[in-house]
Amino acid sequence: MLGMTTTILKLLEQRFKAAFEKLGFDASFPVVLHESSKPEFGDYQVNGVMAIAKNLKANPRELATKIVEQVDTKNVIAKLEVAGPGFINITLSNEYLNQVLNKDLLKVTAAKCRKVVVDYSSPNLAKEMHVGHLRSTIIGDALVRLYEFLGHEVIRRNHVGDWGTQFGMLMAYLVEIKQDNSDITLELSDLEDFYRKAKTRFDEDQEFADHAREYVVKLQSGDSKILALWKQFVAVSLDHCQGVYDRLKTKLTREDAVGESAYNDLLPMVVNDLIAKKIAVDSDGAKCVFFAPGELDVKDETPFIIQKKDGAYLYSTTDIAAIYDRVQNLHADHLVYVVDARQALHLKQLFAAVKKAKMVRPETIMEHVAFGTMLGEDNKPFKTRSGDTVKLITLIDEAVQRAATIIRGRNSQWSEIEINKLADVLGIAAMKYADLSKNRVCDYVFNFDKMLAFEGNTAPYMLYAYVRISSIFRKANLPMEHYLNHQVIITQIDEHNLAVHLVKFADRLLQAANENYPHYICSYIYDLAVLFMRFYENCPIMKAANQKQHDSRLAFAALTSEILKVSLNLLGIEVVEQM
Ligand code: ARG
User: What is the rounded CA–CA span in Å between residue 192 and residue 204?
Assistant: First the structure.
């Protein structure tokens, strides 16, 4: 059975491991197994034999030959071949492929299911959501879907910045302009504009700035009037964010927004705990966690400040408290932070501090899923012509509008309603896919034309591939689901290659989750679409030799289509039936 317990990589590994045992190898010798990079190297390749030979002072090719003789190939492997200095090329048997190519390919479960908290999006509420929040939202949402698909229990946490000094400024400005009965929603209809005006007042007017600081103190001491105002402000901001999340079709809801303020009550305890454990120490009145040189794998040796001299708590303190909550109250065993790469030091210090304080269990996994900056065409951080940050909603609107123009050009007979409906899906899909298909660690250049192109590894290409395959069934009026379990027969190389790729689905998803790399899914489905098209050209369904072959080819189409759909959904992209 594939999926639940054994993926193809696992299965091959077991077979080789058993051969290693028979040859009396040390149990620590790894089976280094990879997908082959070229068809002439078979489907998979073992390339760790040279290292073992070195260890045993043996001839690598001879050793590889000995291993090959011991590997149990039954049902799974058609051919094993020693190549080059001691590589072993593996070709999977068609018998095996026939057997596993069915609906069960789509059942992929993690070896161990965990309770995972994914911290993502997390904008600061003082401002409107801008392009800087796009990547965390998109990548985080894809990871949430992937983890859930694999059977993990996922808790989403939108760690919004809803506390801190900038709120004093906003409160002061709100009080200044607010006519007694005026509607706060109206005044905050343009948060960005509101923030700018408040900031101008703050910078220009000393009295106003003093007011602002007073409001911070009042807010923190729980002054009910100021607190009520703050609550309204937060509510309006969160509504705005939710509008963006819904538009982007993310899974985030209002319940997931557990902002910095939610941890206020825990802050004194957290600081005291770290002091009691002598992990935080006094430094000029401030409370800091120091790390010995080399303790963190960074050059920067700035301490992790958890309380300022004036007693104020910081971003760091809240994050420690959030970990306490996630581990102690939510019982999470895996914490994921989808946060800009520029916060790497903060997260390293955070993880190290809570480990030292034993606030997490030794086996608790904490990961910073870092991502690079979104750049404009000029390779500089994405800005408007006038140098302002771009509002996220404006960017989404433009993507959808551009998608509509493209669709209108391609389908002259469509109604405006049909065009707009598809444009909404396509525009957003294009933005998501462009982001997710790149290695998240790198900066990436945001380009509407590229992401909306129908060629290459793009959303339009993938959605179109899906539409073409499902139209095979629609045109012939055949139920696709029926063919998902139809027996395949492999006679041609393009069938074999497509089959092998389909079988890789489980391993690729697990790898994507292991490394938090959604782009693995994108390259998988892109290759899948390319392989399918090659198969479709060379193994025409209508020209099948007999009914069995005809049905087998439809089974290939059905499985490809289903895997495309599931994968796109994992990326937060809905498929369409027409394009
Ligand atoms: N609000 C922060 C910012 O805009 C991001 C928060 C990320 N999450 C966290 N737990 N620190 O930079």
Answer: 18
User: Does the beta carbon of 159 sit less than 6 angstroms from any atom of ligand 1?
Assistant: yes
Residue 130 CB less than 6 A away from ligand 1: no
Cα of 414 from ligand 1 centre, angstroms: 44
Residue 138 in domain: no
Same-domain status, 274 and 236 = no
Residue closest by Cα to atom 5 of ligand 1: 122
CA dihedral of residues 517, 520, 521, 525 (deg, nearest 10) = 160
Which domain range does residue 218 map to?
A: 165-254
Q: Is the CB of 119 under 6 A from ligand 1?
A: yes
- What distance lies between CA 81 and its chain's CA centroid? 38
Beta partners for 304?
Answer: 289
What is the C-alpha separation between 261 and 159, in angstroms, rounded? 9
**203, 236, 254: which is the final residue of a domain?**
254
316 Cβ closer than 6 Å to some ligand 1 atom: no
What confidence tens digit (pLDDT) does each residue in 266-301 have? 999 999 999 999 999 999 999 999 999 888 988 888
Atom of ligand 1 at shortest range from CA of 161: 1
Q: Is 557 part of any domain? A: yes
Q: Which of 117, 159, 314 has the most ligand 1 atoms within 8 A of CB, as the residue to mutate?
A: 159
Q: Are 92 and 502 in contact (CB under 8 A)?
A: no
450 falls within a domain = no
Q: Which of 432, 426, 431 is nearest to 407 (CA)?
A: 426
Q: Which atom of ligand 1 is nearest to the CA of 340?
A: 12
**CATH number for the domain including 531?**
1.10.730.10
Query: CA 276 to CA 290: how far, in whole Å?
Result: 15
Q: Is 492 in the same domain as 563? A: yes
Could you report the per-residue pLDDT of 223-269, keeping only the tens digit for each?
998 898 899 889 989 999 999 999 999 999 999 999 999 999 999 99
Residue with tokens 């620590």: 28
Which residues have C-beta within 8 Å of that of residue 7, sequence separation ≥ 6? Answer: 108, 506, 507, 510
Q: Give the residue from 371, 392, 423 where a domain finishes.
A: 371
Q: What is the pLDDT of residues 497-535, one digit of tens each?
A: 999 999 999 999 999 999 999 999 999 999 999 999 999
Please tell me if the CB atom of residue 260 comes closer than 6 angstroms to any atom of ligand 1.
Answer: no
Tell me the three state secondary structure of residue 23. Answer: coil
Atom of ligand 1 nearest to the CA of 132: 4
Read off the pTM: 0.95
Work out how many domains the chain is built from and give that number: 4
